[in-house]
């Protein structure tokens, strides 16, 4: 049985894919704090464009669109509410009939939108171009306890595994006359008999899993090694330094300005 | 009227990796074995017959019902499938409830469902386990329970996917008897199986699946005559048949009984 892993990871070959997860994490921090420190809307736009360029470079921009689209609806409402009702509103920007939009509120809204979109984009760079297991392994090397690493890893696996168990059990039940196709109500009715066996199955496999882990020395205190050592571009570390230096520079500039 | 018609059936899970290509096939009341290497697509084929998977092209008709349009639940009244892995099938917490689940769903009245279920358990020799929890039973016992729960549905067609897995000699004999009993009752029995001795002893017709196509189809004796073709398809012969060929008997022996009779002459 082929189990589709629960992850948004897109398997492509691109420069972005070769960068290590930690650098991408640092980039998320960077892309958020840099515009915050500079408080300049042009820089915010610049960083956002840079994120989008990275997504294009990583060949994953298309996968970002639905995520952005979903949040766009939310962000639109911020624009409307801030534009209409922000307490700072003074300067009329434009009006449609008796609905008046004010410049101050709109500006606040644009800032928020830029920040959220940048966050989404930079998180997408990480999530779409990094294998979850690589990310977790990198974090474990930086000191994340192995047990937490395991929990994170297994959550990625257990959910798709449960989904496939569900498909299997659903097949078994359809095979013996439970109607699962057709009207919505039929489908909902078919869902409940599924729950028992799926949970039962999960419990049984948890027991087996824990025995398998124990047998392989999961609780051993010896230093763990890794079966697969992913290789990343060596440019990652210098990039981290560059981002740190730029951030420090930005902070300095703000202080002495 | 029982009927199974497969017309130019093709199927894939992923487009670039076809599993079955242009298969046409009919079945009849002869007990039929489907053999082929691991991954040949045997399970896929029976899931298609059962309606669980839909053809990529071509069509399958079961008792004049088009599997592409009829729901699996409706087809369940005509065709029963015992899954390869009993754990994929069993989900009730009591054996008798498990066995009665199918019969009740296909519309048998309660009394009839109880009778059919007890008879089915008796047939596989599990009647004294009826109040046990299926998870407390061994794998081979669970397999027998899963067989009983399909037999109890009293369908015209019964398909077994690797029924002899994990069975000892007694279990295999039980399954052999079940297959013969079902056939005597007028059921059509189709079985996926890799135990060639069992094939030779049990089935009238054998179909060999290889590379997404039907490589051979005929009486079991005709099939085991094609020694070289079978070996090429990665299959071996029944042990007693191999022995027969090695001793240069000039005919295909299929069972130990045949071998002994032949030797006495
Ligand atoms: N759900 C699935 N998704 C994708 N590929 C599958 C799935 N099930 C089976 N396969 C593939 O289809 C091929 C045939 O499988 P199957 O019908 O189970 O073979 P058999 O029963 O003859 O051993 C195998 O290569 C298997 O890996
Ligand atoms: Mg199989």
UniProtKB/TrEMBL annotation, chain B:
Gene Ontology cellular component annotations, sorted alphabetically: ATP-binding cassette (ABC) transporter complex
The keyword Hydrolase belongs to this UniProt entry's keyword annotation: no
Limits of the ABC transporter domain: 4-236
Localisation per UniProt entry: Cell membrane
Pfam family, any one: ABC_tran
Record-linked InterPro entries: AAA+_ATPase, ABC_transporter-like_ATP-bd, ABC_transpr_CbiO/EcfA_su, ECF_ABC_transporter_ATP-bd, P-loop_NTPase
Bilayer topology term: Peripheral membrane protein
PANTHER family in alphabetical order: HEAVY METAL TRANSPORTER
Protein name: ABC transporter ATP-binding protein
The organism of origin for this protein: Peribacillus psychrosaccharolyticus (Bacillus psychrosaccharolyticus)
Top-level taxonomy: Bacteria, Bacillati, Bacillota, Bacilli, Bacillales
